[in-house]
Specification:
The structure holds two protein chains of two kinds. Chain A is of the alpha/beta class. Chain A contains twelve helices and 17 strands. The longest helix of chain A has 24 residues. By secondary structure, chain B is mainly alpha-helical. In chain B, strands 1-2-3-4-5-6-7 form a seven-stranded mixed sheet, with helices on one face.
Chain lengths: 492, 486
């Protein structure tokens, strides 16, 4: 069969009775509505309808936003709140005592078995700033900006293993398949800079997040909303540069041709994934010029490099913090950082509170502080929300897997109580919300669930989290599932 | 086939039976299990009369168009079957309603619609079989058909709401259609929260509660215990042994104390047996009003609102509280101008759905500040971002035409300061970013006038330390960021 015949056959397939009825009835309904003189937004009430103008074009949120950008600093592996922010002097007194059974009854831990010993704080704490926030000496830099931060001291989650807890944190569900926080944000808002992705992911540390790229995937949203991983070493985005022997103008011509064909195909099938494909080809082409510029931190002056503690040309968290600022400055909506290696069980040197954990603090403290200061003096912190945290917390008990003398100290996963913090983006400054009991084991007030955190982040971006939905498999889905409460107490 | 005489006797019989249903089946009673079984068939049964009515209607339409009487028998038999099938459904429905659990206002309405439809069908049968006389007039025919068909639609919708909840049909209707069709949500109409910056707490929230829960005994008609709560005067002029309201102290206010008495106490208000109970949320709202001063003229927006109160009011439809430029009545922006502005490379974002205010960003300021689009939309722009643009002191003069600016970002531009004169008188200006620009101490005379400013960014500018000190004393409310680590 030659190409022409094949095309004719394909066309005939598309003009089946069912297809005709479908497109006919939709068109008729639209025309009828339009003739009723209804406002145009009534026609766009279908969330898919608003994507047709270009999935990345800017869209207004539900209400005027407090934040236009989010930088989420995820400490993958879950840092211990008891060594950083949740100061528990009584826990120090209980150090070495066997945990009473009343604290263990009905509990399930990832690793702890039997009756573990209590473990006092492995850090010295001091109060910082006018707000008097307790921050440990592991984070000497962060203490200087304590008055910019709102702490959430009674966070809790439903999952006590890394991958499901990370999925819950980013997709609102511990299993695979849902869109991530950044994808929801870009789906809702579109992008501000058409030459850069709306949602950028920067990884550092020895490994990526345990749950893999699903924590920044687009799930059932059109794939144009997925997080794009940029690298501070080598090509910033993989597979972005032109193939050998293909000059840029030829690339342009071929993308234009492909777009035309794709448009035709879209008109025939109305498949949204085709619009996504078109947008991605075009974005990739524009990104060839804009991404290398945005990702080039060597153009920053020496004092900035020094403040952040960057290591140009290498993979480092500090580089990523500086990149985050550069991306936000250029209009990227959502920058997601993952820094791996906080899973301090004490089963080895790298994952011990007295070794690897301290290194992680050193790797991140200076850069995070520099990021806050740098955004602030540029006037960007007001509309950039920084979120810091892990996927869960750590137990007040010592985890000693081997049961023998162990030079390494560690804590097990703990889902009931942990600390996260936010800064900028319309949250209170120098504030702390929520409290845990005397040993940091259970929240006693101001509990904030992961869904509440998500609702709050979306709220700052201008969304009612119950209305930011996407129809999939017969029902409207949302990030916060059936939960979520905006933590108004921390909003400025 | 069906004679006029037959159909009249039919109408009489149907009427008697319907009266029987309406008055003999007590909706609050309990039916025996066989009736309950029959009652639960109601959702299935109602479809039979609907089908018969539709068949009858189609038959008479065909008759009309073919100008014949060929389908008359079909019409008559269908209507006859419709009214008896409908009567069966009414009986079933009445027994079903006795099983309880349905909102009483809806079910009463639904029941009367059902009865009305059945009676109208029987009446319609009389009309269609009538040879001559009053029943034969076109008007009577039309009205009877309209009553049956319209009744079916509305009655059916009410039934849908009973089974699936209010708003079931309209939930996914397009917004415009929804406005026409939707029944007002009682949660959205109980309090007046649409303009929290104008409406007082008393008018919007407290008075509706007092009217609903208290005024049947303590109102215009009755003043039990010589207490009336229906007007501001009645409340403020009340004299009693104990103060009715003590501003700031709900625990010393009789109004609250009586409501909070333990269940069964003889002074408990509202009294247990002859008044509507008051909800916990209402009590919280009243206490909030008293503890914030029991004022009659404080607006909802001006009173500090704890999270619990906010949560309650949000359920009653309180949107975001609007202040500053958001409280203004700004005309919607011209969408054609927005489109042509975008064509020229200016980024224009509507701040939020249904909002008239715009956020604008550009690097070439000519079109952004001076073009015809800027002329047409100047009164809508509230955020302007001219970071690293080619802005000069001269071109900045154009910002004087943007009266509602709240955020102005001119970081990294070449302005030296005189251009700031254009925005120094802006009433709502709250954020000014001059970081990395060329401004020096000459700019201070203009900045000093911006009394509403909450944040000012001066990192990497030529403003001197003395200048900063001068600004700090002139603008004590403003947070001035010079980039120095504190």
């Amino acid at each position: 069969m030659n190409v022409y015949d094949e095309a004719k056959l394909k066309l005939a397939h598309l003009h089946t009775r069912r297809h005709f009825l479908k497109s006919f009835s939709a068109g008729l309904g639209g025309a009828a509505l339009a003739s009723l003189g209804l406002p145009s937004y009534a026609l766009g009430a279908n969330p898919l309808g608003s994507l047709l103008g270009g999935p990345l074009s800017p869209r207004p949120p539900h209400f005027a936003p407090a934040a236009k950008h989010v930088i989420f600093l995820h400490m993958a592996g879950a840092p211990s709140q008891l060594e950083l922010f949740d100061y528990k002097p009584i826990l120090a007194k209980l150090d070495g005592q066997v945990t009473p059974p009343s604290l263990l009854e009905g509990r399930k831990f990832a690793f702890i078995q039997g009756a573990p010993k209590m473990l006092g704080p492995q850090a010295t704490f001091k109060q910082h700033g006018q707000s008097g926030a307790w921050i440990s000496d592991h984070l000497p830099y962060l203490g200087t900006v304590a008055d910019e931060i709102s702490f959430l001291k009674a966070m809790h989650t439903d999952e006590f293993n890394h991958a499901p807890a990370q999925l819950l944190m980013y997709t609102g569900n511990p299993r695979l398949g849902r869109p991530s926080l950044g994808s929801w944000a870009v789906y809702g808002l579109g992008t501000e800079n058409e030459n850069l992705p709306g949602f950028v992911v920067l990884l550092s540390g020895a490994a990526g997040p345990d749950a893999g790229s699903s924590v920044y995937g687009s799930g059932f949203l059109p794939t144009v909303f997925q997080g794009i991983q940029c690298r501070s070493q080598g090509d910033p985005v993989l597979f972005l540069s032109d193939p050998d022997g293909v000059p840029r103008d030829m690339r342009k011509a071929s993308i234009d041709a492909i777009t035309k064909i794709n448009r035709q195909q879209y008109e025939e099938t109305q498949d949204l994934e085709i619009l996504t494909r078109i947008a991605q080809y075009e974005l990739a082409f524009r990104m060839q010029m804009s991404v290398p510029e945005a990702m080039d931190i060597t153009s920053e002056p020496a004092y900035i490099q020094e403040e952040y503690g960057t290591a140009p040309g290498e993979i480092s968290f500090a580089n990523n913090c500086l990149l985050a600022r550069r991306l936000v400055e250029r209009g990227v909506r959502f920058v997601q950082l993952f820094h791996w290696g906080w899973d301090a069980h004490g089963a080895g040197k790298e994952e011990a509170l007295n070794y690897g954990f301290k290194d992680r603090c050193k790797e991140t403290d200076q850069a995070i502080t520099a990021l806050i200061v740098d955004l602030k003096r540029r006037g960007l912190l007001e509309d950039t929300l920084i979120v810091w945290g892990g996927e869960f917390g750590r137990t007040p008990m010592l985890e000693n897997r081997s049961g023998q003398d162990n030079p390494f100290v560690g804590r097990d996963h703990h889902s009931d109580a942990f600390t996260m913090w936010m800064a900028g983006g319309g949250v209170k400054r120098g504030f702390s919300y929520g409290e845990t009991d005397e040993i940091g084991y259970e929240p006693v007030s101001g509990r904030v669930h992961v869904h509440d955190l998500q609702a709050t982040i979306l709220h700052q971006l201008g969304f009612d989290h119950t209305r930011l939905t996407f129809p999939y498999q017969g029902r409207d889905f949302r990030l916060t599932d059936v939960g979520g409460r905006v933590v108004r107490e921390i909003l400025a | 086939m069906i004679s006029q005489r037959f159909s009249r006797w039919n109408l009489v019989l149907i009427t008697i039976l319907l009266v029987g249903v309406a008055f003999l089946i007590d909706p609050s009673g309990r039916s025996s299990s066989i009736f309950r079984f029959f009652g639960r068939l109601h959702p299935a049964m109602i479809h039979f009369p609907i089908v018969f009515v539709i068949v009858a209607f189609m038959g008479s339409v065909v008759n009309r168009f073919t100008k014949s009487e060929r389908w008359d028998s079909l019409v008559h038999i269908s209507l006859f079957l419709a009214c008896w099938a409908g009567l069966k459904a009414v009986f079933a429905g009445s027994w079903l309603s006795q099983t309880g659990g349905y909102p009483s206002d809806l079910i009463t309405l639904h029941k009367w619609f059902g009865i009305g439809i059945v009676w109208s069908s029987a009446f319609l049968l009389v009309v269609t079989t009538a040879g001559s006389g009053i029943f034969q007039t076109r008007m009577v025919r039309l009205v009877s058909w309209a009553a049956v068909l319209g009744g079916l639609v509305v009655g059916g919708d009410l039934g849908g709401q009973l089974t699936h909840g209010r708003g079931f049909v309209t939930q996914y209707a397009p917004a415009g259609l929804r406005l026409v069709l939707e029944h007002p949500d009682p949660m959205k109409t109980r309090f007046d929260l649409s303009t929290p910056d104008v409406t007082t707490v008393y008018d919007g929230i407290v008075s509706p509660i007092l009217m609903e829960k208290c005024s049947s005994c303590h109102g215009a008609d009755r003043g039990k215990g010589s207490l009336r709560l229906h007007t501001v005067e009645a409340i403020t002029t009340h004299e009693g042994d104990e103060p009715l309201l003590t501003a700031g102290k709900p625990e010393e206010s009789l109004l609250i104390k009586r409501i909070e008495l333990p269940e069964g106490h003889e002074d408990q208000m509202p009294p247990m047996y002859n008044a509507k109970p008051i909800s916990h949320a209402d009590v919280e709202l009243l206490k909030w009003w008293v503890s914030s001063g029991a004022s009659f003229d404080q607006t909802i927006a001006s009173v500090e609102m704890p999270t619990t109160i906010y949560t309650i009011l949000q359920a009653y439809g309180l949107g975001g509280i609007r202040t500053g430029v958001f409280a203004l009545d700004v005309a919607p922006p011209d969408t054609a101008l927005i489109a042509s502005w975008r064509q020229k490379g200016v980024s224009v974002d509507v701040l939020a759905e249904g909002e008239s205010l715009l956020s604008v960003r550009c690097t070439v300021v000519q079109d952004c500040i001076w073009g015809p689009e800027a002329d047409g939309l100047a009164a809508n722009v509230t955020w302007i971002d001219l970071r690293n643009s080619d802005l000069t002191d001269e071109s900045m003069a154009g910002l004087g035409r943007f009266p509602l600016l709240t955020r102005v970002n001119v970081a990294g531009t070449a302005i030296s300061g005189s251009g700031l004169a254009a925005i120094s008188g802006h009433e709502y200006l709250d954020y000014l970013n001059l970081y990395g620009s060329m401004v020096d101490d000459n700019a201070l005379q203009h900045i000093e006038l911006m009394k509403k400013l909450t944040s000012l960014y001066l990192w990497q500018t030529k403003v001197s330390e003395e200048g900063i000190a001068r600004l700090r004393s002139a603008l004590p409310q403003t947070e001035i960021d010079t980039g120095d680590a504190k």
